[in-house]
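In the current project phase, the collection of sequences with tokenised folds has grown. One resulting record follows, to show the layout:
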Amino acid sequence: MHFLYRATSTLFADPGDYGRTLDSLGRLVVPEVCDWCAVDLTCDDGSLARVAVHHADPARQPLADELRGLPPATGPLDPEAVVATGQAEVATAVESDPDLGAARDRPGRGAELVRRLGIASFVIVPLAARGHRLGALTLATGDSGRRFRPADLRFAEELAARCALALDNARLFRDAEEARRLAEQSALAQEDAARFGEQLLGIVSHDLRSPLAAIQASTQLALKRAGEDEGLLRPLRRAGSAAGRMGRMIEDLLDFTRARLGGGIPLRRREADLGKIARYAVEEAQAAFPEHPLSHRLHYGKGSYDPDRMGQVVQNLIANAMQHGAPRAPVAVDVRPDGEHMLLEVSNQGPPIAPERISELFEPFGITARAGARRPGFGLFIVQEIVRAHGGTVAVRSGADGTTFTVRLPPRPSRTAG
């Protein structure tokens, strides 16, 4: 019992090192229990592989190392049968057993190595843990004169149970570490791919600005020369409007790239009136979508803002409300003071957004309110980044009466604001 206690302490000293556990097992039993030992473990295909052989005589350890590279069934030893049946095997005296003696003396390098290591008595016990047969442990005696008796089988089985549990724990720990390493590699690869994609978006959107500017300039020139020809003016106006939308999309892509790559969205602050900024955005949206009613209640008061960026915030919130609200339902825009802060609210009527999806709205590819459809846009993400750059916050509340986005802005930049 004292030996089994020491065996448990030794085997579980380093549960994360599989090789060290095998080495500790060999050093534990040799020479205190036997003259030499072998450990055979079950492979994924069900076959056995000899993973360790230890001998008490250092001069014969090279022979043990050679035996390790040979098939497990060598000489009189047959760990494969023990693993297959789950029944231990004890040989008290190989010399007095005709079958074992014949197996010991048969030709072949494996049998020769067993004879040179010494094989007077042996016990082979299965290694089993959590209902799985992991392999077999062979304890053998030779020149020392020690012999295993049938009564020693219970001790060998107790020792094998502790060895199997230690090996199984080490294997599980090793597999968990390998899974963690692979997961980390996968996460790094995904991060690299995402960063490359974001950089590519920035490069492509930047390079698109020049040809788009040429298209817009050509369209404007053609409009001036079209005169009163409505048949020509209509497609030119559509082309100009489409070019304008493309320009805004490219700017959104550039803003997205700046924000995601850590540069942040740049601001050009000056004294500006949030109410007037909102009024211009409402007028522009109403002209672009005359069929969609817009109501507004605007308080005029100056603060430190980037007028173009805040106009972009209002426009994006109005566009989002029109897109995801009830068709042709009114969209309301409200600007008012709230203590030292200014509030901008944009409301629409439509189906409520599930609470668990609120946080996804500001992701570049978040979930929309309608039927869980994906929103392939950056509008709300850019709204959040611009508001944060101003030192403000943006929140959402949604219920049966509709959805409201509330932007809270300080009138002056805070110390932490960019």
